[in-house]
Design goal:
Helix content is 17%, strand content 23%. The chain is built from ten helices and 23 strands. A hairpin with a 2-residue loop joins strand 20 and strand 21.
């Protein structure tokens, strides 16, 4: 095992390979507060990449309902339980700092790589702590959809009388949209005995070389997010490819300009924002103040990684839901949850403007600019003064061309009585 630096954990950790980083990394932010579970992203991905024989159960993008749902079934509950047993309980975090090398403090506990030497399966030792899901666990991608958890209903047929008061609801659920995180330290890559899995040096997207893959499914066993899929018709494994033809500008309608992935472009809830972040030689993010992903993670600090304690350093980040219980969210997104939710509940002027970039254009936004506008709202909400300014935010692509221009206050259109019932 080599020692690599994981800034999500705020410390060095063990990993099977020496550290190697691309100049820039594919990254994204999902705003859970906006997701309506419509599955537009899921079907966009399915119709583009996994519509053939042997791919029926593959959902490279899926949206699952938490706390009960998951695809494969209970994937996170199982790996969290395995990790907790290896650690003798949940791992602990030290106090957070303002450093980009340890923004959420230091994690004191074993990662899936550090716990693996003590783990074994029927096929031998593991490179990363994990398990291989049974076939029935892949059978229901939308199991427990919209099922809420309500702690106060104890009798069958009884309805909860409240549940809408913040900071947390009595009855709650939320949608968790997931794709491959294209991790900095992928467990699938670490576990592949054929070395068929690699990170693209130009953007860090994780791919599987189909000519080298033999379908041993070690990657499926090791990936804690369960985002690799075995295809029986070809006896190889497949996964999300970050829609790399689109981000290379090779889409038929792109005219050579990079597009966001299919799931990002199809999202009608506008919960998704994709870009690339620049990396320093030690794997931490280079300062890029007006890159929207960098801003949300390192400046506004409202976007958090999914299960950072796994140790893979995922490059997908989430703005956690305001209404769910904090202990549940902390074990899912780490110790930055409380601060992130408090900031999201009373957004500052710049963050509110940056959130308007989500879903506004299918071109990839590399940089933004804000032009100040007039104040349009002022009120005290739950003891806080809230001000909204109708600022204009502009987004630019990698070449500096304007691709987005929108305002904080969305325009209001009143349909004439002549077309009142028209859709």
């Amino acid at each position: 095992m080599s020692q690599v630096y994981n800034w999500h954990l705020g410390r060095e950790m063990a990993y099977p390979y020496e550290a190697s980083y691309p100049d820039r990394q594919f990254a994204f932010v999902f705003n859970i507060n906006r997701c309506i579970g419509c599955q537009s992203c899921t079907m966009a991905c399915k119709s583009t990449w996994t519509f053939s024989a042997g791919q029926e159960y593959m959902w490279w993008n899926n949206v699952e309902t938490k706390p009960y749902g998951g695809y494969p079934r209970h994937w996170d509950v199982k790996i969290l339980d395995m990790l907790s047993q290896a650690n003798g309980g949940p791992g602990q975090w030290s106090r957070a700092t303002d450093s980009r090398r340890a923004p959420w403090g230091e994690y004191h506990g074993k990662t899936i790589f550090e716990a693996s030497p003590n783990a074994s399966t029927e096929n031998g030792s593991q490179t990363a702590l994990g398990y291989l899901p049974a076939d029935e666990e892949w059978s229901a991608p939308n199991i427990f959809e919209d099922n809420p958890l309500n702690r106060r209903v104890t009798k069958k047929g009884e309805y909860f009388k409240s549940g809408t008061d913040l900071p947390t609801h009595d009855a709650w659920f939320f949608y968790l949209a997931r794709i491959c995180n294209h991790c900095t330290y992928p467990a699938c890559l670490a576990a592949c005995p054929r070395k068929a899995i690699y990170k693209r040096p130009e953007d860090g997207i994780v791919l599987i070389d189909q000519k080298e893959c033999r379908g041993y499914r070690k990657c499926m066993e090791a990936c804690p997010y369960k985002k690799t899929h075995y295809r029986a018709t070809t006896r190889t494994t497949e996964k999300c490819i970050g829609c790399y033809p689109r981000i290379e500008g090779k889409d038929a309608d792109a005219n050579g300009r990079p597009f966001t992935t299919r799931c990002m472009s199809a999202c009608i809830g506008q919960i998704r924002l994709q870009s690339f972040v620049k990396l320093k030689p030690d794997g931490t993010w280079a300062e890029d103040r007006y890159n929207p992903i960098y801003y949300l993670v390192h400046v506004a600090k409202i976007a958090l990684p999914l299960y950072p304690q796994f140790g893979t350093e995922p490059n997908g980040f989430y703005i956690p839901p305001r209404w769910a219980p904090r202990p549940y969210l902390r074990q899912m997104f780490g110790p930055g949850v409380d601060s992130a939710i408090e900031k999201y509940a009373a957004l500052d002027r710049e963050t509110l403007a940056v959130l308007q970039l989500f879903g506004k254009d299918k071109h990839i936004c590399h940089r933004y600019e804000i032009r100040e506008g007039p104040k349009v709202f002022e009120k005290e909400i739950r003891g806080r003064k809230v001000e909204i300014f109708n600022d204009t935010i502009l987004g630019y692509d990698a070449e500096g061309r304007e691709i987005i221009r929108t305002t904080v206050e969305e325009p209001l259109y009143i349909r004439s009585a002549k077309h009142a019932n028209s859709i």
